[in-house]
Design a protein that fits this description.
The protein is an all-alpha fold and 212 residues long. The protein has one domain. It contains nine helices and no strands. The chain starts with a helix and ends with a helix.
């Protein structure tokens, strides 16, 4: 694995940690535990993720997050709690992947890894806060399930094709920002229409005026 691929792998998992920290750790750990991937010499420090205790903690966190993320009010609390945990986990994971010998580079890697995880976590939490405010009860679970599938797929892809995965993760991050802005506009319009009453929402006022 080249230096560029190692950096791309670290960047991918930093971004994914902001969405699903425990699922990212679990995907990498299981792949190493069952020898689905062969770690190059530079990444031998990641063997710790295949430790049964680490896998057990990651699995427990994943199960808790899987259910908490599907319930609107609990999801908002969970995201608030992980505003520190996800960036820190992403920073440590990036540091373990790059593992440079230069102390200055270690600091840079730690900061960039944490920054990437914080960025994706911020976008995720903001988007879900808007979705959680939706008047219907199903969108939160649908968006959450989509995040589960996307994170697992990108984690698996990153372990084999890190350059492709980091590009897809970056595109998803940008798409999430665009979706967040669009969702805010839609919900703002829905709330404004609801405040004016059902007649305005369904255009009944206009029809009544035309009939008169």
């Amino acid at each position: 694995m080249s230096a560029v691929e190692i950096i791309a792998l670290a960047a991918s998992f930093s971004l994914l940690s902001g969405w699903r920290l425990y699922l990212s750790l679990l995907a990498a750990g299981f792949a190493m535990h069952f020898h689905l991937i062969a770690l190059p010499a530079q990444l031998q420090s990641l063997d710790i993720l295949a430790n049964p205790w680490v896998l057990g903690v990651a699995a427990t966190g994943f199960v808790a997050e899987f259910f908490a993320d599907k319930i609107a009010w609990l999801d908002s609390m969970w995201d608030g709690l992980h505003s520190i945990i996800r960036p820190l986990g992403g920073a440590l994971l990036a540091l373990a992947i790059v593992d440079p010998s230069d102390p200055a580079m270690q600091v840079v890697t730690f900061l960039l890894g944490g920054g990437g995880a914080l960025l994706s976590h911020g976008v995720k939490a903001s988007t879900r806060a808007v979705v959680n405010a939706s008047p219907e009860p199903f969108s939160n679970a649908v968006v959450s399930a989509g995040e589960d599938v996307a994170t697992f797929g990108l984690a698996a892809l990153a372990l084999s094709y890190p350059l492709v995965a980091v590009v897809i993760a970056a595109v998803m991050l940008v798409a999430s920002v665009i979706a967040l802005l669009a969702l805010r506009r839609v919900l703002r319009r829905i709330r404004a229409n609801m405040a004016l009453g059902p007649a305005h929402m369904f255009g009944l006022e206009d029809k009544a005026a035309d009939a008169g």
